[in-house]
Amino acid sequence: MLNFIFYHTPIFYLIQSIWRDEAFSYFMAKPNIVQVIINTAHDFNPPVYYLLLHFWMKIVGQSDEGLRLLSFFAHIVTVYIAYVFSEKVFSKKFAWFVALFTLLNPMLLYYAFEMRMYSFYALFTFASIYFFYFKNWKWYTVVSTLGLYTHSFFPLIIVSFATYLWFTKQLNKKSFFLVVKPLIYFLPWIPILAVQFINSKNSWLFPVNFQTVTSSLGNLFTSYEGTPGNYWGYTIILSVIIFIYIIIGLKHKKKEGLLFSLPVFFPLVLILGYSMLKRPLFVNRYMIFVTVFEVLAICFSIWSIKNTIFKTFSICFWLILIIVINLIAPPYHKKTDFKSTFAEINKIATHNDFVYAKTPIGFLESAYYFKNKDKVFVYNPNGITIPNYIGVTVVFPNISRSYLPDAPSKTFMVGDDATFSLVENK
């Protein structure tokens, strides 16, 4: 039973080995706060999450589970906001369903256990919806500004809100200013964002094709990115179902339905279109805010259903669906097990020994787990320039080594698959 809980439920996301991006977060957050901001300016995302993690690390230290719980805390706050919002917009009873639906959404839950900014990205998205809906412009400005300084795609939410006001004929000078006001506080970062965008031309992002487009709603709802490779058909079907439910909500009450559905489709069309016509920008996790609006659009649709039987069926269908996904998905989100590898290496390594990652891909996990953090390098005998998008050069500008250290030290050569070999230095 414990084996099932640890390896076939979302608990697995909490306890498994950290992966490259999570190790990157750790090293980004480790220096003093001024250096954190400077380093962030050379990366592709703003600094709020790294600053939060910086102070969180002072409490939990270097503990995989402890560091990941910061994201889970953000997820729990998101669930609370979902409940309060739904209690006011729908009913107290239905608010429990919305809260549970938000808590167990596979996309939101997966990133609730990752040492990255995406759970806070989702939190600030939900908070911005809350304050936008109730026209609490002071707090809308605060949470939206925090969102802007959390992820570079957050401006799409503000543009979506402005577009919603235009569609519903509520856009005037005053409302436009109130909606876009957070962007004023984001102005200092915009030149940095522009440079980051230019520098991101050489990227790892995969091209967008018709399959990506037709399955995008389902992919964003389930956190599916192609593993295993035979599930695309299912996410296409789920995309159709999500689309149908959104249409049901729009038919019931167009104005509120647009608030929840327009920020689903408008940013998707924009990013997917640009990715197909220009260069790839679309990544599931970058668009996690769309998942938040999907959750709300589906809940609004269910709430609007008058037929009691269909309404009950819908509630049961969606809850069963997300529970099943959360039981199927964890093994397919398995990260390369550097944790076990370095548990073995750290037992036999002395303070004189080194770790050389065979490629830059495995460097950050190696640096994170090896006990001699100042003795981890990338073995690079040909002097190849390490691409910026891998991230290691932001926090480790001089990590390439073309030679092995001298005796009496040993070198552990670690591959991207977390296997290693031991070299006795001469």
Which helices and strands, and how do they pair?
Blueprint: H1 2-8, H2 11-15, H3 20-29, H4 33-41, H5 48-60, H6 64-89, H7 92-104, H8 106-111, H9 118-133, H10 137-148, H11 155-167, H12 173-186, H13 190-199, H14 210-222, H15 232-252, H16 254-277, H17 288-304, H18 308-328, H19 338-348, E1 354-357, H20 363-369, E2 376-379, H21 392-395, E3 400-401, E4 410-414, E5 420-424
Largest sheet: 5 strands, mixed
The outline comes out as globular
Specify the structural class. Answer: mainly alpha
Report the mean per-residue pLDDT as an integer.
Answer: 93
Return the string of H and E elements.
HHHHHHHHHHHHHHHHHHHEHEHEEE
Q: Which ranges are low-confidence, i.e. pLDDT below 50, for 5 or more consecutive residues? A: none
Number of strands: 5
Identify the strand order in the major beta sheet. Answer: 3-2-1-4-5
The gyration radius over C-alpha positions equals 23 Å
Fraction in helix: 55-70%
In DSSP terms (H or I, runs of 4 or more residues), the helix count works out at: 21
| Oligomerization category of the chains in this entry | single chain
In whole angstroms, the N-to-C terminal distance is 50 Å
Q: Any overview of this molecule?
A:
The chain has 426 residues and is mainly alpha-helical. The chain has two domains: 31-333, no CATH class; 338-424. The chain has 21 helices and five strands. A five-stranded mixed β-sheet has the order 3-2-1-4-5, with helices on one face.
Task: Describe what is shown at a glance.
It contains 21 helices and five strands. It is mostly helical and 426 residues long.
